[in-house]
Design a protein that fits this description.
Blueprint: H1 2-20, H2 27-44, H3 61-70, H4 83-86
Amino acid sequence: MSQILSQMVQIARQYFMDLHTPEPNPPDRIAAKESLLEEISEEYSHKPAAPSDTPTSPFSLAEVKSLKKQMLSTAPGPDGIQYAFWK
């Protein structure tokens, strides 16, 4: 009985390892990704990241807490910020 259980565990382990091991991207997909990234870089390289009067620093904890109080009580996750805000 323990030999059968051991074999079942090995089969299950191999199944989940195969399931969660990513397959390598084919060369044509890698080339397409690189081409797309180059195209995007060329398109946006001359544009400013943000208007000069727009603050670009990370949110402070106080800013996040003040926004959280203004949001409804629905959220997609444990952060408490509703989906519409992130969308």
